[in-house]
Amino acid sequence: MEHHTEIIKSGCHKILEGINSMSLVNLDDQQVHSLVMMREIARGVVDDRDRKVTKNDVITTLRYSIEKMVCASRDIVHMLSRMSYEGLDDQRMHLVLRMKEIAHGIVDKQPRVAITTSEILVDQVCFVDEGARDSPVVDSIKISNGDILIDEAQSTMHEDEMLDVDQVLGFENGIDEVEESLLSSCFQQFLLWPSDDCVTFEWVQDMMFILEKASQKTLPTEFCHVVQTFVVFKLIDAACNVLRKEPNCVEINCLGEDSRVIVVGDIHGQFHDLMFLLKHLGMPSENQFYVFNGNYVDEGAWGIEVFLVLLAWKVLMPQRVYLLRGNHESRYCTEQYGFKKEVQTKYGNQSEDVYNKFLECFKELPLASVIANCVYTTHGGLFRSIHAAASASVNPKQKMTQRVDLGSLADLSQVKRTCIDSPLEGPNILLSDILWSKPFNRDGLRVNAGRKLGLWCGPDCTEAFLKQHNLKLIIRSHEGPDARAGRDDFGDMLNGYSIDHDGESGKLYTLFSAPGYPQFGEKRYNNEGAYAILKWPDFATPSFQSFKSAERPMVYPYLDFDADDTDLSKLDSSQIDIEASTSTFSSPQDASRPEFDFESLGIYNAPSWSVQLPDGSGGSQAVQVPRAPLVEGLPLPPNIEFLQEPHAAAYKYLFELVAGLKHMIATRETENNARVSALRSKARKRKERGHN
Q1: Taking a C-beta distance cutoff of 8 angstroms, is the pair 560, 278 a contact?
Q2: Angle at 666 between CA 665 and CA 672, to 5 degrees
Q3: Phi then psi for 33, rounded to 5 degrees?
Q4: 51's torsion region: left (phi>0), alpha (psi -120 to 50) or beta?
Q5: Which residues, at least 6 apart from 335, have a Cβ–Cβ distance to it below 8 Å?
Q6: d(CA 163, CA 363)
Q7: 3-state secondary structure string, 575-595?
Q8: Comparing 1-10, 344-353, 389-398, 501-510, which segment has the lowest mean pLDDT?
Q9: Cα 458 to Cα 157: distance, rounded to the nearest angstrom
Q10: Residue 31: is its pLDDT beyond 90?
Q11: What class of enzyme is it (predicted)?
Q12: What is the pLDDT of residues 341-357, one digit of tens each?
């Protein structure tokens, strides 16, 4: 019995330490209440208290915490008022001012910004200087989030509120699970740029962890607080300094006995699939190389996260991670397929600067790679010669039947890759070929008259290119199951890869790494993604592995609005609201909504998931409310008597509906602001052109 008691005490001590050391960021009031209740129960076991913990104990403890927090906030305001900001960079200056604003709000009992108590107590304390670590301010902060004694005189016990310690902790093996569950909810909410500008392995790991948690717990409109513009600019600048030194075609020397190269195709903003690959295959290392064939953004909801993580790895390990450019790394595609809208949603008023910064980085990405002197990788495909490009500039109206001469690696080296969009003509049209070309089942290199971008490359071209450069293999990307649908001449890409050309000198593969593509849209292919593994000593014999889509949070697509030539002065806010609401919410995808039979409770006019909105022409139309990625109030607490079925299902329905309406309003407001900003920008440019 004594041994059993000691095990329980030890487990409770771990729980006590875990809760006291954790950040409560992103926990709602009910979760904080439950954690404090659990902590006091654990403390009672550790301290051999006989009495039971009640809800009033928790309320008293929280009240004491708030009082301590207010006192600490007063001290913080006083200290920051006397503090010199000299020597602080823009990032830390922003956070110090934010902390001061938060502290003022707490003292005034009217918080000026939306931020959790735990952020104040845990995250902001890092800005107290070394000399102040033993000050009352720091002590108060520690007390507020640490050991708090219960004032028993203020507790009133009621039998129906008592919790039995043995009932909660009547297990031994569950202790570790409770501790792990508690600690897993503790994560740093925002990413700080290294003070010495030195990206480390630990920093990249922290970044991946923060972004993965934020994708599950943070609304897109709050992403700018997770990764501030200062961090984005710093990371992009560091990456560009590396990328611009690389040639158009990078040579990857990986001839060590234990070396292997992993080639990845289109990702299209599917961040959680990228995380799966890095975790499953292992991070870049001395013997493990990664080559990414482009199309990091668009179509999916997390293009920013995908690209930032890959840039971080590029900065950390520039000789082990290679990022090639895809056709979607352009202004044209990102305006059409969602990335620009993603940036606008996540960065609001700062989105134009952030978006342009990403475009600057896209221009620096190299176009192809040669692995171990035998494998050529690129995004689109083969390309015409410089001579053929010059001829095309003279006579741009080439027919599809007209052949063009095949280019070489020497021609590739002369391409000016700093064009943000692929040219339709001119000597730099090779850039369009490299990013947009596709394999064809007939011999020859022909202009793609339908797309007007890129070429159709026949098997004879693949054979000639491999033979000319003594290569054995081409791995390209650019095409997924949507591009192959209805075509019998090539593989359907449902397993993530296809052998498109197989000749005497070698093969051409197409590789696609976005499973369950597209993330949004009416047509889903339920395809697998794939990656290629090239190993020493025979890099020319790849191993292709397919993988299924990783679990990811439910989000809604970033629909683009049409920034036409509407005169802003004639466009009122009501018109903008109507257009934004009807375009965004009329056809939500993959959004199964909870259902409940309110008539069983005698309610015959229950709220539905449909709302009537003006259609802009004097009438109205029914618009479906989208489900929100985060729902306040859920999950419902299990220990409330009246929240039993069927009432629990009714509460869940209503909480979901309220959250959906809030999400709908917030998204529409973001889109309105972005639309107004775009129209103003366009009007300003027209005005400038008029003056010129």
Answers
A1: no
A2: 85
A3: -55, -45
A4: beta
A5: 560
A6: 62
A7: HHHHHHHHHHHCCCCCCCCCC
A8: 389-398
A9: 83
A10: no
A11: hydrolase
A12: 999 999 999 999 999 99
| Residue 384 β-bridge partners | 406
Distance CA 478, CA 462 (A): 17
pLDDT-derived band at 587, boundaries 50, 70, 90: very low
Number of Cβ atoms within 10 Å of the Cβ of 422: 22
- Name, in order, each residue with C-beta under 8 angstroms of 108's C-beta and a sequence gap of 6 or more: none
pLDDT of residue 615: 56
Positions marked active-site? 328
Query: Would you place residue 619 in the very low, low, confident or very high pLDDT band (cuts 50, 70, 90)?
Result: low
Contact 291, 264 (CB under 8 A): yes
Collapsed DSSP state (helix, strand, coil) of residue 33: helix
Residue linked to tokens 């973001």: 670
**pTM for the whole thing?**
0.61
In angstroms, the CA 466 to CA 593 distance is 53
Distance CA 692, CA 689 (A): 5
Q: What gap in Å lies between CA 87 and CA 74, rounded to an integer?
A: 24
Whether residue 627 has pLDDT greater than 80: no
Helix (H, G, I), strand (E, B) or coil at 57: helix
Q: Are residues 582 and 621 in contact, defined by beta-carbon separation less than 8 angstroms? A: yes
Which has more pLDDT, 42 or 127?
A: 42
> What angle, rounded to 10 degrees, do the helices at 303-316 and 201-217 form?
170
In angstroms, the CA 399 to CA 221 distance is 47
pLDDT at 188: 45
Rounded Cα gap, residues 368 and 246, in angstroms: 11
Q: How far is residue 484's CA from residue 481's CA, in Å, rounded to a whole number?
A: 5
Cα distance between residue 100 and residue 111, in whole Å: 11
Tokens linked to 139: 């002590």
Burial class of residue 481 (count of CB atoms within 10 Å of its CB; 0-12, 13-18, 19+): buried
pLDDT digits (tens, 9 = 90+) for 531-554: 999 998 999 999 999 999 998 888
In the structure encoding, which two tokens stand for residue 366, read together?
């190299």
